[in-house]
Amino acid sequence: MNDTLLWYTTRGAGAVSLVLLTAVVVLGILSALRVKGAGWPRFLTTGLHRNLALMTLVFLGLHIVTAVVDPFTHLGWLTAVVPFSSYYRTFWLGLGTISFELLLAIVMTSLARGFIGHAAWRMVHWLTYASWPVAVIHGIGTGTDTLSAWLLVLTVACVAAVVAAIGFRVTAGSRDPLEEPRTTFQAAVQRREPR
Amino acid sequence: MDRNTQDRVRAREAALRLLNRLTTGVGVGALAGVGVLGAVSAYTIPGAATSSQTASTATSSSASSTSSTSGLGSSSTPINSSSSGSGVVVSGGT
C-alpha cells in the first residue's frame, strides 16, 4: 500500500476515533442521568453508547494498525502495546497507548459485567474520565494536524461537548429512581427504632 | 395481550429499529469521515520533503536530481550522477 495513503488514513482514523470516543463519553453521561424522551427510551441511549464504544475500538484499531505498518515511522507493534516504548515522539505516542489500553479495559469489563459484578465494573468505568482526556492530549501532542484549523475546531467541539455533559451531570444531581422510596424506607426504619 | 402492552411492544420495536439505523448511520459516517478527514489532512499538510539524503547522493557529483515525497519523508534519486572512483580494470582471459 502507498505509504502516503497509510499516513493520511492514520490521521483521518485518529480524528474520527476522537469524535466517536467523545460521543461515547457524552452518551455514557446521558445514560447515567437516565435521559429519555418521547420516542427515545432510556435503553436507546445505553444501546447507542455500547455500539459506539465497540465502533470506536474498530476505528482505533485502524488508526493504530495504519500507524504501525507505515514504513516511514517504523513504530513496531511493541509501541501499540507498551506505553512510552516508541523512539518516535515517545511521550505523546505513549499517551495514546495508555488511552487505548484504558478504553480496552473499560470495554472488556463492560462485556464481562455479569461475571465481575457491578461494583468492579463501575470502578473500572470511572477510568473513562482518564482515558478521554489522555486521548485528547495525545491528539494535540502527536498530531501532525494539531495546528490545522479543521482539527482545532474538531478538538474544541469535542472538549466543549464533554465539558457540557459533565456540567449537566454535576448540576442535574441524582436521577436515582429509587432515591425517594429508599428515603421513605429509611425514615420508616428510623421511626421504628425507639421501640 | 392488551392494548397498552401492544403499544409498549410497538414502541420498543420502533426504538430498536432507530438504534440499528443510528448505529449503521454512524458507522457509515465514520467510514466516510476517515476518507474525508484523510483527504482534508492530505490537502492541508501533504507531507514535507526533508533534506535527508542517501549516502549515494551525498557522494555523487551530480547537480540534477529529482525528489519525490512519500509520507513524512522523501527519497532522492539522482539522474545524471557521475562517479569519481578509479577506473575499472578488467583482467582475466588468456
Tally of helical segments of chain B: 2
How would you classify the helix and strand content of chain A by structural class? mainly alpha
Low-pLDDT parts of chain B are 48-94
Query: What is the distance, rounded to the nearest whole angstrom, between the alpha carbons of the first and last residues of chain B?
Result: 107 Å
Number of helices of chain A: 9
Oligomeric status of the shown chains?
heterodimer
Look at the structure and give the mean pLDDT of chain A: 86
Biggest sheet strand order of chain B reads 1-2
Outline the low-pLDDT stretches of chain A.
Answer: none
Q: Largest protein interface?
A: A-B, 36 and 29 residues
Q: How helical, in percent, are the residues of chain A? A: over 70%
How many strand elements of chain B? 2
Write the H/E string of chain B, N to C. HHEE
Rg of chain A, please? 21 Å
Mean pLDDT of chain B: 63
Q: What is the topological layout?
A:
The complex is a heterodimer of chains A (195) and B (94).
Chain A lengths: L2 H30 L9 H28 L7 H5 L8 H22 L1 H4 L1 H8 L2 H15 L6 H24 L6 H14 L3
Chain B lengths: L2 H42 L10 H5 L5 E6 L2 E6 L16
Antiparallel strand pairs in B: 1-2
Summarize it.
The complex is a heterodimer of chains A (195) and B (94). Chain A has 195 residues and is mostly helical.
Features:
heterodimer, A: 195 residues, mainly alpha, 9 helices, B: 94 residues, alpha+beta, two-stranded antiparallel sheet, 2 helices
Give an overview of the whole structure.
The complex is a heterodimer of chains A (195) and B (94). Chain A has helices at residues 3-32, 42-69, 77-81, 90-111, 113-116, 118-125, 128-142, 149-172, 179-192. Chain A has one domain. Chain A is built from nine helices and no strands. Chain A is 77% helix and 0% strand. Chain A is mostly helical and 195 residues long. By secondary structure, chain B is an alpha+beta fold. Chain B has a two-stranded antiparallel ribbon. The longest helix of chain B has 42 residues, at 3-44. Chains A and B meet through helix 1 and helix 2 of A and helix 1 of B.
